[in-house]
Amino acid sequence: MILVNRFLLYLLFIIPSALFAAHFEVGRDKPHHTLKSVLQLAKDHDTIWVDRGLYAEGNIVIDKSVVIIGRNWPVIDGQKKSEIFSIKASHVTLKGLVVKGSNYASLDDPAAIKVYDAAYVTIEGNRLDDNFFGIYLQYSKHTLIKNNVIKAYGKEEQMIGNGIHCWKSDSLQIIGNTISGHRDGIYFEFVTHSVIWRNVSHNNIRYGLHFMFSNNDAYISNVFKQNGSGVAVMFTKNVIMINNHFIENWGDASYGLLLKEISDCHILGNRFNSNTAGIYLEGVSRARIEDNTFNDNGWGMKIQASCMDNVIHKNDFRSNTFDVSTNGDLVLNTFERNYWDKYEGYDLNKDGTGDVPYHPLSLFSKIAETNPSAMLLFRSFIVVLMDRSEKVMPSLTPDNFIDLYPRMKPVFT
Amino acid sequence: MNRILKYVMLDIVKSKLVIGYTLILALLSWSLFSLEDNSAKAVLSLTNVVLLVVPLVTVIFSTIYMYNAAEFIELLASQPLKRVSIWTGFFLGLSAALVTALILGLGLPLLLYADFAMAAVLLTTGIMMSLIFVSLGLWVSSMTRDKARGISTAIFVWLFFAVLFDGLMLLLLFQFSDYPIEKTMIGLTAFSPVDLCRILILLQLDVSALMGFTGALFRDFFGSTKGEWVAFGLLTLWVVIPFYFSTKKFRLKDL
Q1: Residue A378: predicted pLDDT
Q2: What are the distances in angstroms from CA A3 to CA A12, A14, A296, A338?
Q3: Which residues contact A69 (CB under 8 A, 6 or more apart)?
Q4: Please, which of A106, A308, A340, B74 could form a disulfide with A332 given CB 3.0 to 4.6 Å?
Q5: Minimal CA–CA distance to A229: which of A214, A207, A245?
Q6: How many domains is chain B partitioned into structurally?
Q7: What would the 3-class secondary structure string for A148-214 be?
Q8: What residues contact A162, with CB distance under 8 A and at least 6 apart?
Q9: What is the DSSP track for A362-373?
Q10: B211, A382: Cβ pair inside 8 Å?
């Protein structure tokens, strides 16, 4: 009975739509030569196949729910004169296209693919090259951006836009994209209930990922490498960050992850390798920072005195120059059960937890914080002596900045 | 001169002290590298060996050696030899022996375990340290005839460069923290070979931290190739100048 029902459903809905939706072919030796002419003929739910070739048609407005699929990488060229695709209808799909050369403008932010107020748009498997903005969403919902390669060659912050720019949107999925050479790799402003998954964002001029006022989002298993200033999450709440890699974000104002004025976030299982500062926290409250590894960073964690009620639990701190630093005497955060490679205590009852509490804050990190030129004396005998005596009897560093149960062995090996 | 170099070197290489020095260096570095699963930590400990142990052993050994060789020097001076070549022969012999000890003891495990750039920097600074403190040891021994006084001066020289100088720098830093003293501080490091070497090593070891704001000031200077050459130039001066003064002293000395 169920089978018959399914069959009837199929007959009723799927076959008719397949019958009435038309297919168009665009190409040099096909009936239609330009995308624009086909778009005028097409109706909602039609499919347009684009053959290999160069299509320089200026601004292409898509105001019908069509599917556009490229065969053998057709090139849609904006010739640095205009925005290329302007999507103004819902249920549009763009696939397998090379989109390049959008123009530069400072007033209306032209992009290779810009979505205006449309939902259920799919942008999948495209190559975007040398555009001002890559993909730009405004007032978009339920949009999928997947497996695109977005590349630009920006030199200065003012002269280049963001790779994937999302503004006032909801329920987006940004999956498996590779973004480089833009201002911010991925930019979120007023975007909610969205997921950023398995993207690689590297060598961007400013941030690999930039969050502003975007609540209830998650980013998972992304790689952020060698960006000008790492990743920034600001003025936001309920963001989940899991299993991301923050690698080699180096510079005077560079952080693996910059957290500013955020609350109720969960930072779990991330890796911070060779950054100037792994995580920088300012005005952060109620964050859980768990199961992360901090390797070879200048500072593992810079936690400012304006942070409160954060729990730093079960993280590994290995071969960082300084594991943590802070700028005041107020400590309202909990450090628990972390592994510190500089810990020198013992474990008599063999329960895996050191019997002596650990003060992760070194005196010298405090001195260097207020007096940067002191860095010149780092690792000198006298400084090591001072640090040692401070570890035994904290007098200048806050004595409640403490891990009561330091682990003897790393969480991850 | 070559003859003297050969005699001195063979004499030192045979001495138990230098063999012991080589063995201890080797033992330290091999055990550090095999005990620590993290080679960066072992390198860190070896940095302290290069900055503290090497100068101490070198300066005291060369001072004592010169005092013990006083009669041999008198004998040589009675021969038709130039005093400058006698002195240079001793300097080169001592340096060659101690540098060999360093390369055998520290260099081999470093090259095997640590990454190449790090090993190269640590070994070069170690060699420079040896040369500088042999030169300083010679100077100390040329100053006074009294062995006890000479050795205590040598120890003080080591103590000054290893500990006191940095203490003074730190004091200065706090006293004048309201003033822009960064450049002065960098200038002052030229007066301590230990500090110069430490900074050269630091630039390899703590790259991530030095890429930040705090390290900016001396990364810009010492991190550039020009800065590195300046640092090595200064280290060479630290070999040449004490040696020059000691030669001058020895040439006119009434043995």
Answers
A1: 85
A2: 14, 16, 60, 57
A3: A47, A48, A49, A50, A93, A95, A96
A4: A308
A5: A207
A6: 1
A7: CEEECCCCCHHHCCCCEEEEEEECCEEECCEEECCCCCEEEEEEECCEEECCEEECCCCCCEEEECC
A8: A133, A134, A136, A182, A183, A184, A185, A186, A187, A210
A9: -HHHHHHHH-GG
A10: no
Which residues, including other chains, have CB under 8 Å from residue A146's CB and lie 6 or more apart? A122, A123, A124, A125, A173, A174, A175, A176, A177
Contact between A80 and A102 under an 8 Å Cβ cutoff? The reply is yes
Residues of chain B with Cβ-Cβ distance to A298 below 8 Å are 206, 208-212, 215
The whole-angstrom separation of Cα A118 and Cα A169 is 10
Taking an 8 Å cut-off on Cβ atoms, the answer to whether A375 and B47 are in contact is: no
The CA distance from B216 to B221, in Å, is: 9
The tokens for B83 are 């005093």
What is the residue whose two structure tokens read 């005990």?
B35
Residue A399: which of A391, A411, A407 has the closest Cα? A391
Question: Which pLDDT belongs to residue A3?
Answer: 63
B81 class by beta-carbon count within 10 Å (0-12 exposed, 13-18 middle, 19+ buried): middle
A333 touches chain B (CB under 8 A): no
Domain that holds residue B97: 2-251
- The answer to whether B182 contacts chain A (CB < 8 Å) is yes
What is the C-alpha separation between A172 and A156, in angstroms, rounded? Answer: 29
What's the pLDDT tens digit per position in A292-335?
999 988 899 999 999 999 999 999 999 888 999 998 888 899 99
Query: HSE-up of B64 (CA within 13 Å, CB side)?
Result: 12
Nearest-10 Cα torsion for B244, B249, B252, B255: -130
- B174 part of contact set with chain A, CB < 8 Å: yes
Per DSSP, A308 falls in state: B
- Residues pairing with A156 in the sheet: none
Q: Tell whether A305 is within 8 A of chain B (Cβ).
A: no
**Where are chain A's structural domains?**
229-361+398-413
CA distance A277 to chain B (A): 8
More confident residue, A329 or B131: B131
The strands making up A277-282's β-sheet, listed across from edge to edge, are A60-62, A85-87, A111-116, A133-138, A164-170, A186-192, A209-212, A230-237, A255-263, A277-282, A299-303, A322-325
Partners of A124 in the β-ladder = A95, A146
Structure tokens at A267: 């930072």
Integer-rounded Cα Rg, in Å, for chain A is 26
Angle, alpha carbons A119-A120-A123 (nearest 5°): 110
Q: Distance between CA B74 and CA B68 in Å, rounded?
A: 11
Q: Could you tell me the sign of the dihedral formed by the alpha carbons of B31, B35, B36, B39, in that order? A: positive
Q: Rounded to two decimals, what is the model's pTM?
A: 0.85
Q: Indicate whether A217 pLDDT > 90.
A: yes
Are A375 and B181 an interchain contact pair (Cβ–Cβ within 8 Å)? Answer: no
- Residue B49 is encoded by which pair of tokens? 């060996």
Which amino acid, residue B143? M
Q: Are A89 and A65 in contact (CB under 8 A)?
A: yes
Interchain CB distance below 8 Å, B213 and A252: yes
Q: Which phi and psi angles does A300 have, rounded to 5°?
A: -65, -50
A176-183 average pLDDT score: 96
